[in-house]
Specification:
This protein has about 170 residues and is of the alpha/beta class. The chain has 6 helices and 5 strands; from the N terminus they run E-H-E-H-E-H-E-H-E-H-H. Helix 5 packs antiparallel against helix 6.
Length: about 170
C-alpha cells in the first residue's frame, strides 16, 4: 500500500538510496536534512512514516522523535543510526519510535521496517474506528449521541476541540 514518507538525514547519498528504494515500492517520499526542516514539514502535512537519522546537525534525534510524536501521534518513526547501542534503542522506543535500525542498512531491511510500521499505523487506525463505533452503538440515549460523537471524534483524531453541526428542521 503506497504511503507518504519523510526521510530526515543529512547524508545525501543515503537519502538518495532510501528514496530510490522506497519510491520503487510505490511510496511518496520527501527528504529533508535537518531537524528544523522535518518539524516544518510535519506541521504542514501528514506522514505515515518518518525515517530519521539519530545524528542530525541541528537536532538531537531522540528529542526530535518525542516532538514528532507530540505533533503527529499516529505517525510511525523509524530511527536509523551509524552508532547504535541497546541503550539508544531503548531510549528511542521510550520516545515513541517504532523501530531502531543500524547503518549501513540493507534496502530490504528498510522496506521491511516501513512495511511493518505501516501495518502498525493501520492497526491503530482500525482500532480507533472500532472503539468509536462500539461507543456510538452502545448509546441508549439519542439525546446524548451528538455529544458522544464529538468526544469520540476528538479522542480518535487527537483534537483539542471539535464541533458537530446538525441541520435544523429546514435542513440548514
Amino acid at each position: 500500500m503506497p504511503a507518504n514518507l519523510l526521510i530526515v538525514d543529512d547524508d545525501v547519498q543515503l537519502v538518495d538510496l532510501y528514496r530510490e528504494v522506497l519510491e520503487d515500492e510505490g511510496h511518496s517520499v520527501l527528504a529533508v536534512n535537518t531537524g528544523k526542516g522535518a518539524m516544518l514539514e510535519i506541521q504542514q502535512q501528514d506522514f505515515d512514516v518518518i525515517i530519521m537519522d539519530l545524528g542530525l546537525p541541528d537536532a538531537d534525534g531522540m528529542a526530535l522523535t518525542a516532538n514528532v510524536k507530540a505533533i503527529a501521534a499516529r505517525t510511525e518513526v523509524i530511527i536509523v543510526t551509524g552508532n547504535g547501542s541497546v541503550e539508544k534503542a531503548v531510549e528511542g522506543v521510550r520516545q515513541g519510535a517504532f523501530d531502531f535500525i543500524e547503518k549501513p542498512l540493507r534496502p530490504q531491511a528498510l522496506v521491511s521496517a516501513v512495511g511493518h510500521a505501516l501495518e502498525r499505523r493501520q492497526l491503530a487506525i482500525n482500532s480507533a474506528l472500532f472503539q468509536t463505533s462500539q461507543a456510538i452503538f452502545a448509546s441508549q440515549d439519542p439525546e446524548t449521541l451528538p455529544q458522544m460523537i464529538v468526544e469520540v471524534a476528538m479522542k480518535v483524531i487527537g483534537a483539542d476541540d471539535a464541533s458537530l453541526m446538525l441541520p435544523d428542521e429546514k435542513k440548514r
